[in-house]
Amino acid sequence: MSDLLKEVEKEHSVDFIYDEEKLRSLTVLRLPEKRRFLEYLDDYLTEYKVIKVQDDIAVIVDKEFGGEYGWKKENYIIFKQSSNTSVSLTGTVLDGRVDEPLIGAQVSVPEFKQGTLTDLDGKFVIKGVTQGVMLMDIQYVGYDPNTYIIGFSPYGKMESITATLLPASKQ
User: Fold this and answer.
1) Considering the chain, what is the average pLDDT of its residues?
2) CA distance to 4, 93, 134, per residue, from 59 (Å)
3) Which of 19, 102, 104, 134 is deepest in the core (most CB within 10 A)?
4) Distance of alpha carbon 109 from alpha carbon 125, whole angstroms
5) How much is the pLDDT for 129?
6) In 62-75, which positions are buried (b, 16+ CB within 10 angstroms) versus exposed (e)?
7) Pairing between β-strand 106-109 and β-strand 86-95 as defined by DSSP bridges
8) What DSSP character marks residue 158?
9) What span, in angstroms and rounded, lies between the C-alpha atoms of 93 and 161?
10) Collapsed DSSP state (helix, strand, coil) of residue 22
11) Could you read off the pLDDT of 61-99 as tens digits, one per residue?
12) Which pTM was predicted?
């Protein structure tokens, strides 16, 4: 499967972001010509979901992984791929109501057991993150938390994140 995806990436100038180890053992015998490729992948990869994030980027995630955080493409942040294997994630956390910085918001990447708090301008930096697919959690007292699925691609446009949190829902 990963060989097929690499071939399609090269031929059509698109990027699939996925865990190569998990897909390496899957094989595709025949691709029906009249079916759209992403629909085919979505049906064929029964334990995975294909999310088209941009015209030239699709993310393949475990259905369990993505389902927990919703399938909204707004939850996917695709950074411009770097030649370095280790990168820094940078961004700003804002109050979604008034667009003002949230000071002291907690930003973490659980997979790497790394996190930080935003500064006086709502900015953060998490250093030493390996490029791949990962979750980023953002929390602030009195606000609904948000989780983003982060990926890296040569076609990625993001160089930093602007995340917004909304005041907690009253129930």
Assistant:
1) 79
2) 15, 24, 12
3) 102
4) 11
5) 87
6) beeebeebeeeeeb
7) unpaired
8) B
9) 8
10) helix
11) 776 665 555 566 777 888 888 888 788 999 999 999 999
12) 0.74
